[in-house]
Fold this protein.
Amino acid sequence: AAAAAPVAAPSASSAAPAAAEDLGALLLTVVADKTGYPVDMLKLDMALEADLGVDSIKRVEILAAMRSAAPHLPEVDPSDMAAVRTLREIVEYLGRTTGAPTDPAPTTPSGPSAPRETAAEPVSERAGRFVVREAVATASGRSMLDAVGTGLVAITDDGHGVASALAEKLEASGVRVAIVEAVPAEAAGVILLDGLRACPDAATALAINRRAFQAAKAFAARASADGGLFVTVQDTGGSFGVGGVDADTVWTAGLAALVKTAAQEWPAVRAKAIDLERGRRPTAKLAAAVLQEIIAGGDELEVGLHKDGRRTTLVSVAEPVVEAAPRVDATSVIVATGGARGVTAASLLELARRAQPRILLLGRTPLADEPAACRGVEGDAALKKALLADAKARGEMLRPADLGRQVDGILRSREVRETLAAFEAAGSPARYVPVDVRDAAALGAALDEVRTAWGPITGLVHGAGVLADKRLADKTVEQFDLVFGTKVDGLRALLEATAGDPLNVICLFSSVAARAGNPGQSDYAMANEVLNKVGAREQRRRKGACLVKSINWGPWEGGMVTPALAAEFGKRGVSLIPVATGARMFCEELAAAPSDDVEVVIGGLLSGESQPVGPRTHTVTVDAASHPFLTGHRIQRDAVVPAVLALEWILSAAAAERPDLAVIACDDLRVYKGIPLPDFDGRGHAFTVTLDAQPKGREVVMTAALVGADGTRHYGAVVTLGPASHRLAPPVLSAGTLEACRWTSSDIYGELLFHGPEFQVIRGVEGVSDQGLVGTLQGVTAQHWIGGPYATDVAALDGAVQLAQVWGLHRLGRLSLPTRIGTFRQWQTGPVDGALTCVLEGRVTGKHGLAVNLLVVDAKGTPVASMTDLEMHMLPASKSSQQAAGAR
């Protein structure tokens, strides 16, 4: 189903109960419309799941239709409905807000409504593509322990003594600590060290994920009400397994996804996943490393602590796929789970059209013959009506839940048969075997039959998955086992069953929920994160003989994304992946050139869910250890923060909120008060970047401020993020007819500017005129600046501002300082290697002002970044040039 499909809304006659505030009758009408059950079968006391089979996705549809029929009803966050179990509880929930009566009127509402057309947002022919990589991260110095106050911190035992050593260090700091087997109800903080346990096999490692889920569930009630501390610790090489981990500890990778989901479900909790590379370090040093991260780490949810002292995090980097020779052709034998229906089937059908491989589909749907009463009947509601009539004719009664399951089985079987026919029509021989992929014996038998008929298996596509969306407090262990096991145990069984086959392609259908977390999907996120990291291990283990891709799909237009759910995504600025686009990009991944990038994100992160809409804060700590290059930006004795570094901090914070999007523009960066750092060489200074984010179509607009520890507002800006395709073309600038500049680089830094060696990035001035200037620069890499990851090449940008100061000296004879950047845009993210060229176009404004436009390009002439409407102001001649420069 495409996102542009009609959205059913109650008809004029069925909207009448809403006008009378009869929510009960309206709800029964909507449920009948959305489920196909006759309205006279429905009672308000029916359970949503047990009696009606209404899952979390169907609830979104029902709530959307309720508001469409009764616009006075309040906006309801679908996640608030997690605790609602019956239809009557929905009515009571809405009634408490609107004051409407909760009992249905005695009149019988009318039947299903007519569809209403809705406008669909145009979609790109390509979705965003991002690879997940490790990047160095500098600790901010912010402690997490303030979240527990005087409460108890519960630590689970790792079995190696780290828990005891950590507990001793925390107690010495005045923290109440207990080493526990299970998380007690009174715990204000939880540190899970189970991920450091010995893992002699995959089963042991997988059990650690289950224990972590149970611990989070036990902590959920306290965390939701009062906040607190939630930390997991694992050992997957310090990189969360991105580079491939040989040990079976890789199967513990779900812990990080649990943290990312918990952080969203519990916004008042300080949460962090730590990957502690053990190496041969003694227990005391391991405990000290964990403690240091807790008391002086940063805001990153994922932090890797390497044995060599490096501190890293994971970042999503936009990068197009590079295709090579296809690995799948007509001789290939592909085994696919979950590929008989939905988006996996659509992806495989595109592969069939391109390469005609032989395909074995494994699924849970038994292909039973349809009852005679259903033959020729189309649609959910019509099938239910036919089966009810048939049952009544035989004197039988059907419960709604039984009726729903029977119709669901019929529709699933039809879809499987249609998929098989489509494969055959595309030239791909196809077979379907109903089997639980976790059943090793049944799986082995199915694969042996295919090997006998077609030959050895050459590729795996693992797309099987189920959902049971509930928040951690409400999710049962049985639901966790079903969701987590279908993905993870299924992958284990596939890898074991094909250990002797010459596989050259493995593609795992993961989810963006693993990358970003998603409320209600802790089990699903954890399972997919395990897929990501086991995929990286498989590529490393197979040493280039097999291409492995784990695709973290964003939401598709089809599959489980109904029009109502698509509308919810739209409110959060999340673009859906068109089915044709997703299928094409799947085939491109299978033809990708060899690389270490196993984990790929396609689509976008769930903006309103991965990061809450509204104010967010990021802390930046500045001292000589974290920002040593600022030694070269001193005014008299004090280091001073340049404007472009403030810009860098704001953009880094925005990118951390939405790593799936690109910086489209930063507008109206204003300097309210310069930032001297008098304690730079001592304890340092802390600043906060605040971001208030609001979705705007496919973009997100963030109002940003940079604030000091004393509350002083130093900078403000508006940042727009969106798909990289939304970036505008770079400006075309003219510096006029150039003449030789009378100043050399040594003159510039020896006489004109105050900058020390770390900031001496101007390599030369090619020419100058009354209309502009052209100069050459170098950036962060050439200057050997530490820190990062950087959102911009901040050194080169400062060099561009320095060139504006040089041009100001040429025109007005005095140094100037920037007070506002009208618009900043960039086309390349982070540091740029090699020489850079800056073109400046400017004019004098009044007696003491300049308006400057700057464009920086790399050695190939490719645009890097631009600043337009950069406002520069001369300072009084009585002030020294150092004072002038220091004010910015």
In short: The chain is about 35% helix and 25% strand.
